[in-house]
Amino acid sequence: MHPRTTITPELRDWILTTTRDGHSVVDVLQLMKDSGYDPRQSRSMVAEVLKLPLAALTAQPVSAPPRGQRTRHPEAPEINVDGHRVGVSLSVGVPSLRVLENMLSPQECDELIALAQPRLTRALTVASDGSNQVDQRRTSEGMFFGLNELPLVGRIEQRLATLLDLPMNHGEGLQILHYLPGQEYEPHFDWFDPQQPGYDTITAAGGQRIASVVMYLNTPELGGGTAFPGLGLTVTARRGTAVYFAYEGGDQTSLHAGLPVQRGEKWIATKWLRERPYRNPRRV
């Protein structure tokens, strides 16, 4: 057995690289066991590196409140949303994932970038107590629009609401993120861990997150796609397209990462959707 329990930089890089290459968490744990790591320590280390709930790795059941509303998954080949035609070029069953074409027009992409630029700050994540924090896994800059803050924002939010059959007020504020070469968002989940101390505080505003929509506002010269390691799938960042994926709290199949931008820059607009109306004015 390996006597060490600390996570070395080499082990951390190996865990991240292995998951990005399409290996599941189960695969990673088995490989570590085959190399002589203690299974209990391996679970703790993998959970820490990938920011996974330890309960998910130990197959312990987690109690949850009654389910709220869920999104409708767009179906191919095309959906007419109030005169705006959105195409579906890729469908995955688990997790429920769709690549959406023409989600935004070129003009809408340019306007969102221009409106966001003066308000960019270091992008934050949600800490276990519900507060915002700087996370070394997320190296981009970003900002939030308030719900229906501007006519453009409201139009996009209504389009998503119609497309996914979920009221506008179930959405968190639209977030714009800007990535430069080398910047990324390492593998993570968008849902909130029910075992975190701040879970009740985080979900009091509108329940659990149930789906995400990542809309690409430009096409990077190289890199910057959205990877789903468990699927062996990377969605290419292309201006105007989007990737939608739905999940349940504890769902490991929705593990995803914003891959490093290798050349150029990347702009995205992200929308997180809740199972109940979201009324918290604090942006997370």
Describe, in plain words, how this protein is organized in 3D:
By secondary structure, the chain is of the alpha+beta class. It has two domains: 9-58; 78-274, q2cbj1_9rhob like domain (Jelly Rolls, Sandwich), CATH 2.60.120.620. It has seven helices and 17 strands. The strands form four sheets. It has a nine-stranded antiparallel beta sheet. Strands 9-15-12-13 form a four-stranded antiparallel beta sheet, with helices on one face. Strand 2 (84-92) and strand 3 (96-101) form a beta hairpin. The radius of gyration is 19 Å and the shape is globular. The model is unreliable at 59-63 (pLDDT under 50).
List keywords for this structure.
single chain; 284 residues; alpha+beta; Jelly Rolls; 2 domains; 9-stranded antiparallel β-sheet; 4-stranded antiparallel β-sheet; 17 strands; globular
**Principal-axes shape call:** globular
Q: Please, what is the average pLDDT?
A: 87
β-strand amount: 25-35%
The CATH class designation of the largest domain is Mainly Beta
SSE map:
Elements (H helix, E strand, L loop, with lengths): L8 H12 L4 H10 L4 H12 L3 H5 L19 E4 L2 E9 L3 E6 L4 H11 L4 E2 L2 E2 L5 E2 L7 E4 L6 H14 L10 E5 L5 E4 L10 H5 L5 E8 L5 E2 L2 E3 L4 E3 L6 E5 L9 E3 L2 E3 L2 E9 L10
Antiparallel strand pairs: 1-2, 2-3, 3-14, 4-7, 5-6, 7-8, 8-17, 9-15, 10-14, 10-17, 11-16, 12-13, 12-15
Helix pairs in contact: 2-3
